[in-house]
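We modelled the chain as a single entity of 91 amino acids. Its sequence is:
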Amino acid sequence: MAKNQNQSCCTPTNHAAGSFKVESIIPIDERGQMVLPKELREKAGIRGGDKLAVVTWNKEGKVCCISLIKADELAGIVKDFLGSLTALTQE
């Protein structure tokens, strides 16, 4: 199946990886700040003092998608990835 030319780099192509949903549309103020809605913070378990990693996806040299991942979740993903690489090199 050919990729649609109008498909953005953030368009999910592997639905088995999880579900994707637009949770809200949020404004960016003049200083570049934004507020995550309370309902979304509660649903995601984000509290004051938590850290989020900003991950960008690039297409043709431009950022086309920005994702937020809890920093501790990202650390776990990296640890798991590095652990699997270590296991491969020891075989």
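As a brief sanity check on the tokenised model: The chain has one domain: 15-90. DSSP finds two helices and two strands in the chain.
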